Amino acid sequence: MSEILKERIKSRMAALGKNPSSVALEAELGRSAVRDILSGKAKNPGYATVAAIARVLDCSVQYLTGRWRRFTPRRQTISSLQSMLAHPISVAFWKPVCFGRSSVRT
């Protein structure tokens, strides 16, 4: 089991004032699931388990597993994606092309 995962779960629990049992219950996992990860008893938790824990700890799976170094609150990530979708990409410079030929007659 990755030490990064253990340390980041502990860090997020401390920041939110939660304990392993409360995180497990909120994530709808077995009561000892988080405690087993932290103790090393659960050596390879599945993606669904880590994703449920990340949701409760308001962070991403990538952060918990060490793929992202910087913590970004899950809500902030979702809102930034929503704002990106709210602003359509300008297509003023796009030229319609069909099978390598322009579909616009000149």
Q: What would your notes on this structure say?
A:
The chain contains 6 helices and 2 strands. The model has no long low-confidence stretch (mean pLDDT 80). It is mostly helical and 106 residues long. A two-stranded antiparallel sheet has the order 1-2. The chain has a domain at 3-74: 434 Repressor (Amino-terminal Domain) (Orthogonal Bundle). The longest helix has 14 residues, at 3-16. InterPro entries: Cro/C1-type_HTH, Lambda_DNA-bd_dom_sf. Pfam families: HTH_3. This is Helix-turn-helix transcriptional regulator. Residues 9-64 form the HTH cro/C1-type domain.
Cα Rg: 21 Å
Summarize the helix and strand pattern as letters: HHHHHHEE
| Uncertain ranges | none
Helix/strand-derived category reads mainly alpha
Write the CATH architecture name of the domain at 3-74: Orthogonal Bundle
- Helix-residue proportion: 40-55%
Strand order of the largest sheet: 1-2
Domain HTH cro/C1-type: 9-64
Protein name: Helix-turn-helix transcriptional regulator
Organism: Sinorhizobium psoraleae
Pfam families: HTH_3 (PF01381)
In short, what is this structure?
With 106 residues, the chain is mainly alpha-helical. The chain has a domain at 3-74: lambda repressor-like DNA-binding domains (434 Repressor (Amino-terminal Domain)). The protein has helices at 3-16, 20-26, 33-39, 47-56, 61-65, 74-86, and strands spanning 97-98, 101-102.
